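**Reference record**
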Amino acid sequence: MQMGRGRTSRMRRRKVFRSSESRGVNESYKSEFIELKKWLKDRKFEDPNLTPAHFPGTGRGLMSKTSLQVGQMIVSLPESCLLTTDTVIRSYLGTYVTKWKPPPSPLLALCSFLVSEKHAGDQSPWKPYLETLPKTYTCPVCLERKVVNLLPRPLRAKAQEQRAHVQEFFTSSRDFFFSLQPLFSEAVESIFTYSAFLWAWCTVNTRAVYLRHRQLGCFSAEPDTCALAPYLDLLNHSPDVQVKAAFNEQTRCYEIIAASSCRKHEEVFICYGPHDNHRLLLEYGFVSARNPHACVYVSRDVLVKYLPSTDKQMNKKIAILKDHGFIENLTFGWDGPSWRLLTALKLLCLEAGEFTCWKKVLLGEIISDTNEKTSLDITRKICCYFIEESNAMLQKVSLMKDEEVALVNQLTLVETLWIEELKILQACAAILSNLQTTFT
């Protein structure tokens, strides 16, 4: 039979191609998921709606077995399946946690339990769940330093803070680890290594759901709000979906209810929150393509980069911006430079005779055509500077991918972030060009 050549047949083929491109490959046959489903069934959970699958772009996730409607329950995971601080207190670690002074944090208790259970291997009752967890993570704290140095400056600084925080957390917890020696035949320092602890910390940080517990006296004052939710944590993030997720006190289940529909055999997503890509990479270890919340941050040194060094009122202007909270969170987004960025630059571009009008600037008033034009020119220069930087960093990452084969996955993650930022900046450049035509 001759293949159709008309427009309708071309559209049909494109539709089939897009559908097959986004459709996942069922992975429910894999041994780790077979064991996980048996384990969940023993704990009174069976899922009629979803099945594990592998998807292009997002990797492992959950696929709908049937069409899901708005308001439909997607997952209802019993409390017996959740791993919480209550789980730790009821376990062999409970006595050690409750006796330790000063009281350990809830996070330390969860991390210690994960390290201990992973070490137990086949003897762990949590093994079916542990086997489905990632072996490694891609949060900046896990990246090689040479890769971290390729991140945008604001994110690089936060990544370095994250690394220092986790290392200090591990060091300050070592005495508690040593107190657990009676539980093990091997030396605890060979079990509670930094790499094992880092894996546990990333597991909690990237995969836990919010579940507020009653504050127990055996823990420090830090909020006890984390719960690991086996199977449910296979759901990937999309900024475009809407779900309702919370622990139901009546049913004693963690429930996810669809706030938007999903077709059969499509990937089912949840939304981790309205996070930009810096936050997603820092906290979860991934970058979201076409993220509507993505933005490019403008640091103070770049903010003043193209302003005249002869401005005698510059220090006063900077002080005003600081006092009124206009020195942080200045960004370029998909819809152009943020109002905060434009406002900060309008104030910084005030001429000597206009300086007394700074309060009006912060209220959004227009001071003069000259001020509007000058601030737009500076905004465009900053945008062009970031475009040049993005292109240079992408070239650097590309060369490094050829030289550092073992780091290709990490470098690809950084490359994706720079590509997304470049797209935003190019969109902003077009918007600024259109705005500038009003002053020519």
